[in-house]
Amino acid sequence: MNTETIGFIGAGNMAEAIIKGIDGSGLVPAANIGVCDISSQRLEHFAALGHQTFSDAGDCAKFAQYLFLSVKPQQIDDVLDALSSQIHDDMVVVSIAAGITAPYIRQRLGRPQLQVVPVMPNTPLLIGEGAVAVGRGPQTAPQALQFVGDIFAASGKVWYIDEDKLNEIIPANGSSPAFIYFYTKLFCDCLHQQYGIDREMAKEMFCQTLIGSAKMMLAPGADIDDLIAKVCSKGGTTIAGIDGFVEKGMPQAVEHGIKACVDRAYELGKK
Fold first, then answer.
1. In this predicted structure, what is the pLDDT of residue 270?
2. What distance separates the 2 farthest-apart alpha carbons in the chain?
3. Which residues lie closer than 8 Å to 137 by C-beta, 6 or more apart?
4. Contact assessment for residue 15 and residue 122, using Cβ atoms and an 8 Å cutoff
5. 8 A C-beta contact, residue 92 and residue 65
6. What is the spatial distance between Cα 95 and Cα 225, in angstroms, rounded to a whole number?
7. How far apart are CA 145 and CA 132, in angstroms?
8. Helix H segments across 110-249?
9. How far is the CA of 14 from the CAs of 84, 120, 124, 199, in angstroms?
């Protein structure tokens, strides 16, 4: 068990998922995790789990060797301003706010040598199935980067990516759960409304197919084009469906949606 202290500024769903993973893995003792939030109810919740709680962000920063900024991008400036006098270069700051870059955090805090690790997690962390992109930059020591990765590995799988590509990875993990939910909803609604299929049964069948298909795509040596071809018999129903999607512009719609997602990350972000 490690002796590092980990603090969280903001105790929303994502922070709770990360903390739940740490608790379950035993990576650090419960008392080595500190939480700061404006909600007294949230603080009481974490205190009952054996964690340190703080009503003042500066006190949480003093406590933590690894400080997580688990707030929305729109709140980041106020948080950084409140923390500026408490941050020191021996700390590691971890940001899960979309679009907020490591250079911007250093500049706002006035700490050009600070180790900052930007991370793009996703909501399946809540069930221990997260897909997490951890941004690596030249100023972060390998052991610090590894420890941040270990924190997220307790709730899912981790990939390390150059920090300047985190906005581009958002469609693949951060936003893709909602894209998948939306895709599933369109299918189930159509099957129910147009063909009278029970919506719940359609959802369960479609979701089970998603699980099985994902496992097949992740199998060693699997090729997505080959998997498509194996389902699409000549003149059959599946190829007719794919042709229908293409005819109505599905490839262009996907490209357009991904671009809109990445563009919005840059709009929200701080360079």
1. 62
2. 68
3. 102, 116, 117, 162, 163
4. no
5. yes
6. 36
7. 13
8. 142-153, 166-169, 176-195, 199-218, 224-231, 237-247
9. 24, 11, 9, 30
Q: What's the predicted TM-score (pTM) here?
A: 0.91
Cα angle for residues 140, 144, 146 (degrees, 5° grid): 110
Q: Which domains can be identified in the chain, with CATH numbers?
A: 6-166 (3.40.50.720), 176-268 (1.10.3730.10)
> CB-hemisphere CA count at 13 Å for 7?
25
Residue 180 β-bridge partners = none
Answer yes or no: is 258 a known binding residue: no
Between CA 47 and CA 82 the distance in angstroms is 23
- Burial grade of 237 (CB within 10 A; 0-12, 13-18, 19 or more): exposed
Q: Does 249 count as an annotated binding residue?
A: no
Residues 6+ apart with CB under 8 A from 55: 36, 38, 40, 43
Euclidean distance between CA atoms 169 and 72, whole angstroms: 18
* 9 is an annotated ligand-binding site residue: yes
Q: What is the C-alpha separation between 75 and 108, in angstroms, rounded?
A: 13
Structure tokens at 198: 């029970």
Q: What is residue 269's predicted lDDT score, i.e. its pLDDT? A: 76
Q: Which residue's structure tokens are 């060797």?
A: 65
Nearest Cα residue to 162 out of 189, 192, 136: 136
Annotation-wise, does 10 bind a ligand? yes
- Tell whether residue 12 is among the known ligand binding residues: yes
CA–CA dist 21, 102 (Å, integer): 24
What pLDDT score does 84 carry?
86
89-130 per-position pLDDT tens digit: 899 999 998 889 999 999 999 999 999 999 999 999 999 999
